[in-house]
Amino acid sequence: QVQLAESGGGLVQAGGSLRLSCATSGRTFSGFYMGWFRQAPGLEREFVSAINRATANTYYGDSVKGRFTVSRDRAKNMLYLQMENLKPEDTAVYYCAQEVSFNSESVYSTNKYGVWGQGTQVTVSS
Fold first, then answer.
1. Which is higher by pLDDT, 31 or 51?
2. What's the start-to-end Cα distance of the chain, in Å?
3. β-strand partners of 25
4. Other Cβ atoms closer than 10 A to 121
């Protein structure tokens, strides 16, 4: 089975930057999309970004557009999220996710993704 492992979280001051990484291991699935979501205490899991591994098309949530950049390294089976100009409201646990096989769910929905990492904490101080 495929496994996802996030890393790169930490504590940063507002205005700072972090790069999250997601390592993929195990079998390869036919799904095209990999995504980043985040969840703050007491809130629902929120879409952050996604990338289509076939077309390299990218998608972003409104709250992170212009500040976050998603990318992947196919050779290394890695997914990245470069986060710039971080704000206290970006504080959350960040998860990477993989679409297992093609489905018609929205790329912005957690329902599209069948495999999730364990998450990495990002804390932005004001």
1. 51
2. 40
3. 3
4. 12
